[in-house]
Amino acid sequence: MALTNRYKSAPGAGTLAALILVLVFGSPWYVDWAANNTDPKTAGGWFLRLLAWPTWRFNSNDSVQDVFAADLKAILVVALTALFLYLLPGSQLARARGTLSQFFAGWASYIFAGAFAALITALIKANPSLVGAFQAAGDGAEYGLFTGWIIGIATLGGWRGRP
């Protein structure tokens, strides 16, 4: 039996795409690879390094607060993406599935999730500051802006609520 869009919810598909992005590109292995094998002065290298933004790790030479904040940031990006996908009404108001409103709602969800996850976790780090939290939120929004289109594509054609 073929799986059709009838069985795919927009929030579920977007959350799954966010989880895969964070698990794969935020992993210590990918982060090390991107740092050692890409040139940040090229567009491709910059983008490959940007994909590693919600880094999670098992151990580090950083303080426990910083490691916890980094891991929490990765978790919050996924959780807040799911929350914003349920809250943004663009795809709920669309007359037909697969419209641009679903795409932009998914993209916006990831921008908001990245910004809020960074803002929240910046206040947990060792020696937090308000300006540091604002700068971290800007970094999170930048990450969401340049990678959120993936979430937007994942949400296309999904249903909102019960089929």
TrEMBL record:
Keywords tagged on the record: Membrane, Transmembrane, Transmembrane helix
Domain of life: Bacteria
TM annotation in the entry: 12-31, 67-88, 100-123, 143-159
Protein name (database record): Uncharacterized protein
